[in-house]
Amino acid sequence: MRRILVCEQIAGAEMDALREEFDVVVDPQIWKDPAKLRQTVADFHAIMVRNQTQVDAALISAGSKLQVIARAGVGLDNIDCDKATEAGIVVVYAPEQNAISVAELALGMMLSLARMLPAADRSAKAGKWDRQRFMGGIELYGKTLGLVGFGRIGFLTAMRAKAMGMSIIAFDPQVSPDSITVTETQAKLLSLDEVLRQSDFVSCHVPETPRTVGLFNYQRFSQMKPTAFFINTSRGKVMDEAGLLQALNEKRIAGAALDVRAQEPPAGPLSEADNVLLTPHIGAFTNEGQNRVITCVCRDVAAVLRGEPAKNFFNFARPKRKVD
Question: Is residue 127 classed exposed, middle or buried when 0-12, 13-18 and 19+ CB atoms within 10 A define those classes?
């Protein structure tokens, strides 16, 4: 019987279906002990992870029976995809199944920043009724949303923002001016510098790659309007937190909302800033979004282990290595 190792908390009806057909071992804390994980993975044909488990070259080498690596999510920055491909292992993931959840969070963060909702909530719960203090909020209507990264999540964010009466500009070298993403949102594709200069809200939707790590630094924040807000629901390492804090302290920008951090769970002075909204990496964590993600990856893992092609794969649909 084919064996599946689940290294983080992944549950649902499709996981139950996997248990009926395969030997599934769930150890949601094993990722914290890389040596134990390397020793354990040798006996498994599939490994399923979220974003905590580092599926690096050493782990892949230890998994001599591995046929499929499954990432329950969209980002693949914690998986050495080159090494997996070299080893002939299929990498499957959920490229768009949680996109709506993340887009809705980005829009919710914009509304929260615009109307100072967290501070107003804390004030009202403290027994105050300080309407004058919160009269300084702004409307989204008529404002410009700048998207850095205009893939599926960026597109869905733009469509929702457009319905709120916002104008859309975007930076993404991979997107063609005549793509459906652009035509449906009536977005203008501009350089990164122009997006930063013209936007009232800048929302980041890029993957973590060597080219995007540190993309947003103090210099880039300083290009934004002093009345503008920065939202990051992508990856924490694309942003220099010290640079953001300096820009906030110097009032180079008006505020920020962050769902992701360079280190998770994080520590540091950003949590003490009044003009920063923080959430604990919950962008994809809606019931609906997670059901779609888990269904997607579980079905692909099952398909690969049965000898069938995967549908949502990074490299190839079937494993290129032979195992007993």
Answer: exposed
pTM of the entire predicted model: 0.88
Active-site hit among 264, 288, 308, 321: 264
The size of the chain, in residues, is 324
Q: What is the CATH number of domain 99-278?
A: 3.40.50.720
204 SS3 class: strand
State the pairing for strand pair 167-171/68-71.
unpaired
User: Looking at 71, 152, 235, 261, which residue is catalytic?
Assistant: 235
Q: Is 281 a catalytic residue?
A: yes
Quote the pLDDT of residue 322.
Answer: 81
Annotated active-site residue 235? The verdict is yes
Apex 168 CA angle, 163 and 169, nearest 5 = 170
Query: What are the pLDDT digits (tens) for 60-86?
Result: 999 999 999 999 998 898 999 999 999
Helix axes 287-306, 13-21, angle to 10 degrees: 20
Residue ranges, comma separated, of all CATH 3.40.50.720 domains in the chain are 3-97+287-306, 99-278
From 3, 197, 281, 318, the catalytic residue = 281
Class of domain 3-97+287-306: alpha beta
Does 19 qualify as catalytic in the annotation?
A: no
| Residues 51, 78: Cα–Cα separation, whole Å | 6
CA 18, CA 305: separation in Å to the nearest integer?
A: 11
Model confidence pLDDT, tens digit, residues 173-211: 999 999 999 999 999 999 999 999 999 999 999 999 999
